[in-house]
Amino acid sequence: MMYTTNTTTTTTITTIRSLIRNVAKTSKWNRRSSSLRQFSSSSHQGKTSSSGSGSSSSSNNDNHQGRVVTTVDSATGIATVELNRPDKLNALDIQMFRAIRDAAVSLRNDRSVRVVILTGRGRAFCTGLDVSSFVKGTATTSSSLSSSSFPMNPFKAMRQLLERNSSDDNDNSSSSSNSSTNVANLAQDVSYAWRTLPVPVICAIHGMCYGGGLQIALGADVRFVTEECKLSIMESKWGLIPDMGASVTLRELVSIDTAKELTFTGRIIDGNEAVRLGLCTRVASDPVVEARGMAERIITRSPDALAAAKEMYHRTWAAPSASYCLRVETELQERLLLRWNQVAASTRATLGWRLPYFQRQNERPLQTPEEGEEEQSREVVLQQQEEQDKR
């Protein structure tokens, strides 16, 4: 929906100043008032201020042997998450599963993050499950290498991937404290967790993207891929099904017969075919550069609007009830209207004022229909059909 106004610029400015005065009464405003005063002064002088160079904070996920490296640019709010097991083509062992999940949860809780770029170091994005680490029992009972670590029974390692709300370490701590949601197990969290982040997640894919690696990529909102990249839903090779969120993500991207064909055969496709089928967004010669360009455009938008847009599509895309979808739209729009970030976005678009955005208002994980709302909407549809049949 686009909102227009016939008021004069003077009236608009008066309305904005009134809103600023109202916001100034809150304690949250007091912490930001100095920056807004600086903006107000420069605006009346007709000057545009530019932000200085920001610093980046980096986390190597030391508790997981550096399996994932996360960097957040404090000036832009752009976070880069790199799978960091290049000698194994970023194959997934138990430490990698934990590291990816914990990186997603950490970023979800960081309200300064505006957008996430997900990629892999080395020659491949991710080649899927490191079968040898489970078969040979090279997975350890601890997240980090220490004298107390020892090889884990392969069956126990697999149970840790599949069980919900149970300990995935040997320290009697519940995995639910680190889990991205209450619906996914550890194996699914590495894909599904990206859907719960209230910010756009852009995946840059290169080299090879097989099995679990492809399912991780499907958890992102947008996927850029190289033309020569090789992709496959490869689980059938090992006598398995794609159980890391594919039943949720694939239905939003491809037809059911395409999903079945790719799953039944496990055939390898290139980047062009992946885009043609709908698995990826578009081909790019350098997906990371493409992702960064999109990220820089995204951060000019309201963080609240981005979070709401992502939530809207995730809650409604597979929902069967039109009335439910329309109610979700209204609910989310009412959450945005006349809040500071919505006013800031409007004045940027209409007056050219670069009012600063506040951190997003929604701190909770995104709501998704998989957590109950879709079932409720189906019940509504069935009730409506029963009523029509009775008439």
What does this structure look like?
The chain has 391 residues and is α/β, with parallel strands linked by helices. It folds into 2 domains: 56-295, 2-enoyl-CoA Hydratase, Chain A, domain 1 (Alpha-Beta Complex); 302-391, no CATH class. It contains 16 helices and 10 strands. The protein has a 7-stranded mixed sheet with strand order 1-2-3-4-5-7-10, with helices on both faces. Strands 6-8-9 form a 3-stranded mixed sheet. Strand 2 and strand 3 form a beta hairpin. Helix 4 runs parallel beside helix 7, helix 7 (186-196) packs parallel to helix 8 and helix 13 packs antiparallel against helix 14 (322-336). The longest helix has 18 residues, at 373-390. The radius of gyration is 23 Å and the shape is globular. The relative contact order is 0.10. The model is unreliable at 2-8, 26-53, 141-150 and 166-177 (pLDDT under 50).
Concise account of the structure shown:
43% of the residues lie in helices and 10% in strands. By secondary structure, it is of the alpha/beta class.
- Summarize the amount of helix as a percent range: 40-55%
Q: List SSEs in N-to-C order.
A: HHHEEEHEHHHEEHEEHHEHEHHHHH
* Alpha carbon gap, first and last residue: 36 Å
Task: Report the biggest beta sheet as strand number plus sense, adding barrel if it closes.
Answer: 7 strands, mixed
CATH class of the largest domain: Alpha Beta
What is the third-level CATH name, the topology of the largest domain?
2-enoyl-CoA Hydratase, Chain A, domain 1
Strand order of the largest sheet: 1-2-3-4-5-7-10
Q: Please compute the radius of gyration using only Cα atoms.
A: 23 Å
Q: What is the quaternary state of this protein?
A: single chain
Please tally the helical runs, counting DSSP H or I stretches of 4 or more residues.
16
CATH superfamily of the largest domain: 2-enoyl-CoA Hydratase, Chain A, domain 1
If you average the pLDDT, what whole number results? 80
Low-confidence stretches: 2-8, 26-53, 141-150, 166-177
The secondary structure category is alpha/beta
Query: What is the correct CATH architecture of the largest domain?
Result: Alpha-Beta Complex
- Count of separate structural domains: 2
Please provide the count of β strands.
Answer: 10
The 3D shape can be described as: globular
Strand composition percent: 5-15%
